[in-house]
Please model this.
Amino acid sequence: MILDKDKALKIADFLLQIKAVKLQPSNPFTWASGWKAPIYCDNRKTLSYPKIRTAIRQTFSEQITEAFGAVDVIAGVATGGIAIGALVAEEMGLPFVYVRSESKGHGLENQIEGEIQAGQRVVVIEDLISTGGSSLKAVEALRKAGCNVLGLGAIFSYGFEKATKSFEAAECPFFTLSDYSHLVEHAITTNYITENDLESLRAWRSNPENWNR
Model:
């Protein structure tokens, strides 16, 4: 879900500027899953640009308040959501925790790192939503700890239907600062891509598993 189209296009512009997102329809990337894709996203790059990371944390803060109201804790998803989550927590003057993909096998064996209490209202921060699997594992861990997870916010989403259905099934509202559709819209209006590229990008979006095979 996009809360503000103008902001979504602005964030898309930032991501393309610093190559946090790359579009290469004619020279596809191979994802860890084995999928061929005309896009690759590495939102950790935003941390290296003070102006952009400031815009992201401020936009997150505004949209969290708009979407969820009062919040007690911000939780980042390890590893990509840790740094940006901490920045958002700082912007909002809130406590911060982060959630591992699974409990540690030593020491205190924590899955949630930081102080959290049952009943607290939590918003989860992620850098990227692909299928939504890792994000929802974090949501589940927080719920098991007794937290009231209000929802999740991410910098970017590919907009896969599978992710939307997974969040709906988990009854977890979510929003993203930008997404694939707005990124492609901005890329075509700024001549970052051509009309021929657009056709290929749309084909991938409609059938990513089998694109370019």
